[in-house]
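ok so I'm stuck.
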Amino acid sequence: MAKNKTRDDGSWGKLIRDIVVILLLVLGIHSCVAKPFYIPSDSMMPVLRNGDRLIVSKYPYGWSYSSVSFHLAPKMAGRWFAKLPERGDIVVLEHPVTRIDYIKRVIGLPGDTIQLTNGELSINGKPVKREVQPLLAIPVDPNLPSSDSSLDRFITRGADGREVLELPIVRETLPGGATFDTIDMGPGYTTDDYGPIKVPADHLFLMGDNRDGSADSRVATDQKGLGGPVPFDTIAGRAEIISFSTDGTAIWYNPLSWFNALRPDRAGTDLRPERSSTAK
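replied:
not stuck anymore, here's the structure
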């Protein structure tokens, strides 16, 4: 009997070791290579939608405490193999105070002067190129608009009688050529006027693409914003691609509903902005 007990103890020990190795491997991949990320709001509309699942790469900007998944690392200064993002990159970061994960777009780099006047963005005293686009119609579903969104006032009915969001789109081109679509809900929002503010060394100025519905660098931390430019060390990685997206109708105990909830047109969407070689 003692021999069997020893064998059983050894089996349990090996199982525990295997589990620990697997967990460390997953943590290492999540922290150093790439991890999944879920979009829970409309702050990055129209590019990202509530219900999108992304792949976020961890290595493009080097590694810091914020690279470690699940917020396991203590906050500390410094970054290994640091490389600044480009204007227009979509980045995941740890909120500098609450350490909650945020996702925003890089607008200002160290040394840039950022200003918004009546919702129009200027960088280093030069207005960013803005082009009004046709209204963008997106089907309404349980995930869109999100429960805390102000986009519901754009809900209308299409020709087939179904509800759609008809969103006012402005295409921006940043210095360096990054081009992407934003939502401009019109005048009257407190975030329409901001600055001028100079981005300090080793900091980045971040904004959401839903310009009037994003708690970002323009918004105080007590209002869930980032409270100004954020330290570079808070950046955890770069959003690369949408792996899949769901409309909020999936039921966990009904596998068939998982497939019916997929938004087939979202999978594979590249999240790197287009870049014009002629922009300065």
